[in-house]
Amino acid sequence: MASPPRKALGKGFTALIPEEAPKTELVDIPVSKIIPNRYQPRRVFRQAELSSLAASLKTKGLIQPILVRKGEGDKYELIAGERRWRAAQISGLETLPAWIRSIPDGELLEIALIENLHREELNPIETAEAYHRLMAERGFTQEQLAERLAQERSTVANYLRLLQLPPEIREDLARGALTMGHAKAILAAGSSEAQRALWKRIVSEKLSVRRSEEASRSKSRTSAKPADVIDLETRLGQSLGTRVRIDSRKRGPRTEGKISVEFYNLEDLDRLIDRLLCQKPASRDA
Question: Domains of the chain by range and CATH?
Answer without folding.
Answer: 24-105 (3.90.1530.10), 165-224 (no CATH)
